[in-house]
């Protein structure tokens, strides 16, 4: 049994262990950014598929990205509109980001603030975590803590008693939009149907 209490899951994450918890999309497989290699190994994930940095607030994530003042303004207009929520933004990474988060191209990073009370509670106490869906690479995302516990027996999963009453995730991964330097490019249409034609470009 690797199902643990909220307190033990947070302590495990802070200690650099792999953990899993519900979000507003699909359950996350997560660890501190410096230990992101554990996720690649557990998922048998190719190094050219970067991870997402998830946090409880946008303020926690801006330190990991860099841009011009007018770019930040455009980015924040989108985050003000869609965060917390099922939108991941791929932005230029700052030097603060550990290279292991995106080994092939450490110049960019995907960031997201989930619209999930339990995920936000965890992230507020761990700080930003390296995350991805909980599944072997190339397979559909697992949807329940029980499935994750079976497939990843060493991962600390959040006991279901800890989030009863929580609104379940939509079961669809987040929408991913990448900043090109002048406008947005949709890399994955996910839970949010994003129409960027009305959103500002530079």
Q: Can you walk through the features of this model?
A:
With 202 residues, the protein is an alpha/beta fold. The chain has 6 helices and 10 strands. The protein has a 10-stranded mixed beta sheet with strand order 1-8-2-3-7-4-6-5-9-10, sandwiched between helices. Helix 1 packs across helix 5. The mean pLDDT is 93.
Order of helices and strands: EHEEHEHHEEHEHEEE
| Physical arrangement of strands within the biggest beta sheet | 1-8-2-3-7-4-6-5-9-10
Query: What's the end-to-end separation, in Å?
Result: 51 Å
What global shape is seen? globular
**Kindly state the mean pLDDT as a whole number?**
93
Give the % helix: 25-40%
Low-confidence stretches: none
Alpha-carbon Rg, integer:
16 Å
Alpha plus pi helix count: 6
Pairing-aware structural class of the strands and helices?
alpha/beta
């Amino acid at each position: 049994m690797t199902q643990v209490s909220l307190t033990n899951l947070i302590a495990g994450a802070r200690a650099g262990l792999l953990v899993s918890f519900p979000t507003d999309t699909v359950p996350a497989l997560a660890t501190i950014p410096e230990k992101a290699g554990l996720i690649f190994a557990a998922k048998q994930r190719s190094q050219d598929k970067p991870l997402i940095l998830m946090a409880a607030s946008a303020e926690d994530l801006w330190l990991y990205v860099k841009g011009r003042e007018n770019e930040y303004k455009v980015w924040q207009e989108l985050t003000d509109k869609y965060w917390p929520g099922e939108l991941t933004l791929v932005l230029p990474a700052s030097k603060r980001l550990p290279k292991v988060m995106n080994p092939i191209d450490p110049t960019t990073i995907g960031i997201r603030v989930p619209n999930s009370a339990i995920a936000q509670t965890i992230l507020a106490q761990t700080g930003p975590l390296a995350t991805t869906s909980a599944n072997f690479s190339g397979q559909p995302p697992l949807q329940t803590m029980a499935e994750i516990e079976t497939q990843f027996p060493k991962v600390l999963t959040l006991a279901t008693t800890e989030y009863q009453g929580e609104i379940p995730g939509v079961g669809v991964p987040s929408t991913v939009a990448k900043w090109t330097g002048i406008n947005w490019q949709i890399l994955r249409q996910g839970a949010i149907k994003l129409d960027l034609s009305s959103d500002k470009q530079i």
